[in-house]
Specification:
mainly beta, Rieske Iron-sulfur Protein, 2 helices, Sol_Rieske_ferrdox_dom
């Protein structure tokens, strides 16, 4: 299956915002575009994010994988144990779209013949809130007072805030 991806920096009208308004929704694209591309990457208040459209649901998370900064916007989406996950193309880490949990398969060494079971490493990837209004997709960054492992790479690759956002 071919993957289509678009990148949007600023394709929606921007209202008066300032650097202190990081908790306000920011438009990142159009719903008709993501229905075709299945994903878009964008920069929201300097933070690189990816928005996935999977099974008619929108999911936003930090663009860089919590493990080693891999490009999640290039990862495949797979169903793992009943959960939609993005698979990091660098090291095949599995991250749930809905919660940002890292998943792994565990084997009980006392019973190695038993099928491995999927387990959670906990919330590793920061996810963000996505809303749609009048055909525009908006992302609201999550509360940064809580720490996630993906914050390291989000900070490392932080982009300067676009001048039009500092009115």
């Amino acid at each position: 299956m071919g993957m289509r991806m678009i990148h949007m920096d600023q394709n929606c009208p921007v209202e008066n915002t300032s650097k202190e308004d990081n908790d306000l929704p920011l438009c990142v694209g159009k719903i008709e575009d993501i229905k075709y591309s299945k994903r878009i990457s964008a920069t929201v208040y300097g933070r690189e994010i990816v928005v996935f459209y999977h099974e008619e649901n929108l999911h936003a998370m930090d663009l860089h994988c919590y493990h080693a900064g891999g490009p999640l916007h290039l990862g495949e989406i797979e169903d793992i144990n009943g959960q939609a996950c993005v698979i990091c193309p660098w090291h095949k880490y599995k991250i749930t779209l809905a919660t940002g949990e890292g998943l792994y398969q565990a084997i009980d060494p006392k019973h190695p013949s038993v099928m491995p079971k999927w387990c959670s490493k906990g919330m590793k990837q920061r996810i963000h809130t996505v809303t749609v209004k009048n055909g525009d997709i908006y992302v609201t960054l999550s509360d940064t007072s809580l720490s996630f492992e993906s914050d390291h790479y989000a900070d490392k690759y932080k982009k300067p805030v676009h001048p039009s956002l500092n009115k």
